[in-house]
Structure formats: C-alpha cells, structure tokens
Write a structure and sequence with these properties.
The complex is a heterodimer of chains A (about 220) and B (about 325). With about 220 residues, chain A is mostly helical. Chain A has one domain: MetI-like (MetI-like fold), CATH 1.10.3720. Chain A is about 85% helix and about 0% strand. Chain A contains eleven helices and no strands. The longest helix of chain A is centred in the N-terminal third of the chain and has 35 residues. The model of chain A has no long low-confidence stretch (mean pLDDT about 90). Chain B is α/β, with parallel strands linked by helices. Chain B has two domains: about 130 residues, Rossmann fold, CATH 3.40.50; about 110 residues, CBS-domain. In chain B, strands 8-14-13-12 form a four-stranded mixed β-sheet. In chain B, strands 3-4-5 form a three-stranded parallel β-sheet. Chain B has a three-stranded mixed β-sheet with strand order 9-10-11. In chain B, strand 12, helix 13 and strand 13 form a beta-alpha-beta unit. The C terminus of chain B is likely disordered. The chains are: A mainly alpha (about 220), B alpha/beta (about 325). At the A-B interface, helix 7, helix 8 and helix 11 of A face helix 1 and helix 3 of B.
C-alpha cells in the first residue's frame, strides 16, 4: 500500500504539483477576499448597531450550512461548476471566523483604554489604527488562521463541483476505489494545513505588540 | 460632559467664555487634559508613546515629543532612562496612574479633567499620589477639575469644592467654608459629623473653658490668698463674695506686684460671661484687650475661666491640625 503510494507519487509528481498549485489558489483567493470583506465589516459592526446584528447573523448562518451543501448550492444559484463557484463558496465559508474575531477583538479592547482614546481627542479613524487595531490584531490574525486551515480542508471538496485541486485525487480515488490516489490528495492537503497553521501562528506572534505580550506574561 | 464624552441633555457648557457644545469635539478634547478612573494606558504603546499621545495627535515634531517625555517623567519623579521604553504592564498600579496624570499634562492644556483618578488604588498609594498631585499642581498651575466620592480627598486637594447631588449643585465653597457652613443637611451628612468644624457662633464657651476654677473669698487677706495659690498650684483664682458670686480674679502676677502681704486680696474685675454664651462672644472680650474672662452660671457663680492663650491654643488646633476630626474629639474632652 505504501509502496503503491510511492510509485503513484513518483509517476504523477507533476500532477501533484499542479494540483497543489490549484489548491493553493483555491484557498488564497477566497481567504484574501474574505479578509478584504470581513475585516471592514467586523469593524463596522463594532461601530454601528444596525450593522452588528445582521452581519453577525448572516456570518453565523453561512457557517452552519454544511460545507458540501454550500458548494453544491452554487449550481442552482446559477454559478455552475468549476473554479469560480468553488471559490465563492469557500469565500462565504471563510467569512465568519474572520468577521467574528475582528468584531470580538475590537469589542474586547478594555473600556478604560477606549475611553482614554476618545477622551484624548482621537478621531474615529485614529482610534482604530492607533489603538483598537493594534490591540485586536493578534485576535484578527487568529481568525484568519482558523479560516485558512478550515479552507484548506474544505477546498478538497470543491473537486466535487469541478473546482480542481488536491480533492481531484481523492474523488478519483474514491470512485476507482484506489487508496493510494486518496492518499495522494489527502496527505499533501493535510501537510498544507499543518504548515499554514504553523506559519500563521508565527505571523500571529510577530504582529502581537510587545507591550501586549508582556502584559499576558505577567497575567 | 465637559469634554463631550457624554452629551448634555440640555444647556451648554462654557469654557473660557466659549460654548463647548458648538466646538469641534476632537479639538476640544485635545485641548483638555484627561485622567480617567481606570488609568486606561494604551497597553501596546511604551510609556513614552503613551505620555505623548496628545502631542502626537497635535503633530508635534518627534524631537519635541521626546524632550517633553523626559521633562514630564522627571516632573513625576520617574527616571526617564528607566521608564521611557517600558510598557504599562511592567509598572505598578500607582506608577501607571502617575503616567496617566503626566499624559494629561503633556500638551500643556489649561484645563485638566480627572475622573476619580485615584479611586482604584490602594489607600497608601492613593495618599501618596494625592500628595504628589498637590506638589505637581504648585509647579504647573493648571485648573484641575477633579471628580471624587471621597470627601477627605476633596478636602485635601481642592481650592474649591462643588458638591453635587443627582446632577444638581448643592454647594460651591472652599473646603474651610464648606466645613464651617454646610449648606444643608445633605452636605452636613456627606461631610460627616467628624469632619465638621465647630462653629464659634454656636459652640458654647463651656466646651473650651478651663472648668471649675479654684475660688477664693474676696474678704481673705493677701497672705491667705498666696497660701491657697501655693497649695493648689493654680496661678489664677476666682474671687467670690460671701454668697459665692463671682467678683473678679486674683492672679499670681498681680499678687507679686504688691509690696506688702497685708490687706485684702482686692480682686481684679474681669468680664463675667454666661456659660451659655458662644465661643465667639467670649472671644470678642479677649480680642478687646482682656487677658482673662470668668465664665459664670445663672447664679453668677464661677464655673470656668478662659484665658487668651487658651483660646489661641484652641483655634490653632482647629485650623492647623492635620486632621480636624481629632481636634473635635479633643474639644469635647476638654
């Protein structure tokens, strides 16, 4: 079995690389889009009550839809099959972790700190980039990290609607009952998730301001 | 409300004659120093960055900000070399609030708001910071509006106290004035009976007099008087007639002036003051040149005497004692 896996890996190595590349794109595009959308939405939710409720509700609903169902839903929604609908589904799926962490990160800035920022005469924008975002940054990063890891896993399912990526091997392997093909998709996907988790953990640490790290150590 | 963190429900607030409700809120807040109860330092910024946050918002050049940081830290008795690059979490609560106060001073505002700044600190640190603030105030000479629930704090720090109850001003006065003339029962209760200054108009003289002076019959001879004085170690005696009514006083100094020990005591007449009179009435006699007054009951019998030095001593203890509560108890005891 392991032997079979190695032979298929060597034989189809170029295909694996291509699938990896596809998979990476299948994750990167939705995640980047989700960051662009969810971070500002999360910030807005902390600023305006009327944004807060609907935004968090929609994010929650999207997250409760099973990932496979969400991918399949793209077809009746008129997006058809292929990479594009897969990316849209993954994008929607990644929104909530980022949105929620942005929201809670900023809401969680201690009250006295917020009051001081306001009382010192900071504008809304200054409060955001001088005080709230730096303090909430590591929490937002944690949200992005969670979203990315989930997305790498879920992206394997996108092969079912023709999205390509490492999921292709798994689907084919399942259809042809060939375990080595399943592994050929599953192992690189798992490694990719672990690596992403590790790297982004490092990045999270890197973007945490020193003063906050000291505060956490003391507590 | 002064810096518009809270909107006034009605009315306006004027600052140096300018209506603050019409001013730009951001500019207004930058022009007012602000110290909040829970310190509220920015945890991700260094002490230097925290202190100069308002100058940064006002776009002071970096070199100037750096200079100001060191200047302020020194003013707060904190070594700039040690504290400049530290983070708030590395400081104790008391040190953090010192930074909070310095931050409010940074951009040299004319007005500083302090909202229960020392409320969250332990009593010893609070006391220390109050002393430092008083000292700092003599250096910087700013108007500080200091909100507190602690009457001792108000009395210790304030030049003027505005006592408020459910949003309404009850009394505006200097600490001394408020202690002496509380506007109503609420103020009296808030200050607490222990802190209230005894009022000379209403405090009976009997509370401060030297009670039960040694008496001497006016018909006695000088020699007998001297003997009594020696045996009682009193140098002032109250002279009375055969019915015990006060006739004046006999002092050791007066007796010493007489070159003969013969003859009667010839008491010196002094004002006789009813024991129900106030300290103020009694004080008027002493202020008008009398050295000693006799306090008498309704039957004119001497019940006490007050000397000028005694009165001064009592006044000093009321006004210069570090803790007026102690003074009052000592007044009661005497």
């Amino acid at each position: 079995m392991f032997q079979k896996f190695l032979t298929v890996l060597v034989r189809r190595f170029p295909d694996v690389l291509l699938a990896l590349q596809e998979h990476l794109l299948l994750v990167l595009v939705p995640i980047v889009c989700a960051i662009i959308v969810a971070v500002p939405l999360g910030i807005l939710a902390t600023r305006y009550k009327w944004v807060e409720k609907p935004v968090l509700a929609i994010g929650n609903i999207l997250q409760t839809i099973p990932s496979l169902a969400l991918l399949a839903l793209m077809i009746p929604l008129g997006l058809g099959i292929g990479k594009k609908p897969a990316m849209v589904a993954l994008f929607l799926y990644s929104l909530l972790p980022i949105l929620r962490n942005t929201y809670t990160g900023i809401i969680g800035v201690p009250r006295p700190v917020k009051e001081a920022a306001l009382g010192m005469g900071m504008t809304t924008f200054q409060r955001l980039y001088i005080v709230e975002l730096p303090i909430a940054f590591s929490i937002i990063m944690a949200g992005i990290r969670t979203a990315t890891v989930i997305c790498i896993g879920t992206a394997t399912l996108s092969a079912l609607i023709g999205g390509g990526g490492l999921g292709e091997f798994i689907v084919t392997g399942l259809n042809m009952v060939r375990d080595e093909l399943i592994l050929l998709g599953a192992i690189p996907a798992a490694l990719m998730a672990l690596l992403a988790d590790f790297l982004m953990g490092k990045l999270e640490d890197l973007v945490t301001p020193r003063g906050l790290k000291i505060a956490r150590q003391i507590k | 409300m002064i810096n518009h963190l809270i909107k006034p429900s009605s009315g306006s607030i004027f600052l140096n004659g300018e209506n603050t409700t019409k001013m730009n809120k951001v500019q207004l807040r930058r022009s007012i120093g602000y110290v909040i109860q829970n310190i509220g330092l920015f945890p991700h910024l260094t002490i230097a960055e925290n202190i100069t946050i308002v100058p940064r918002l006002l776009k002071w050049p970096k070199s100037e900000r750096r200079q100001r940081t060191d200047e302020l830290l020194r003013m707060g008795n904190l070594d700039p070399a040690i504290y400049r690059d530290r983070y708030p979490a590395e400081l104790s609560g008391g040190q953090q609030q010192r930074i909070g106060v310095l931050r409010a001073l940074a951009a040299e505002p004319d007005l500083i708001l302090m909202d229960e700044p020392f409320g969250a600190l332990d009593p010893i640190t609070r006391d220390q910071l109050q002393d430092e603030l008083k000292e700092l105030q003599t250096k910087v000479q700013k108007t500080i509006i200091f909100v507190t629930h602690d009457m001792d704090e108000a009395l210790k720090l304030a030049d003027r106290i505005v006592l408020m109850r459910s949003g309404k001003i009850v009394q505006v006065a200097s600490p001394e004035e408020m202690l002496r003339n509380p506007a109503n029962d609420f103020v009296r209760e808030f200050i607490g009976p222990k802190r209230l200054l005894p009022k000379p108009e209403t405090t009976p003289i009997s509370t401060i007099m030297i009670p039960q002076p040694k008496t001497i019959k006016e018909s006695l001879t000088l020699k007998q008087a001297l003997n009594i004085m020696q045996s009682t170690t009193a140098d002032v005696l109250a002279a009375v007639d055969s019915r015990g009514r006060a006739k004046g006083i006999v002092t050791a100094a007066d007796l010493a002036k007489r070159n003969s020990s013969r003859g009667s005591v010839k008491p010196k007449t002094v004002p006789l003051v009813s024991s129900s009179s106030s300290v103020k009435e009694a004080a008027e006699y002493l202020a008008n040149g009398e050295r000693i007054i006799l306090i008498v009951d309704d039957n004119n019998k001497p019940v006490g005497l007050v000397t000028r030095s005694l009165l001064i001593q009592k006044l000093v203890s009321v006004f210069w004692s570090p803790n007026s509560a102690e003074t009052e108890t000592s007044l009661d005891a005497s």
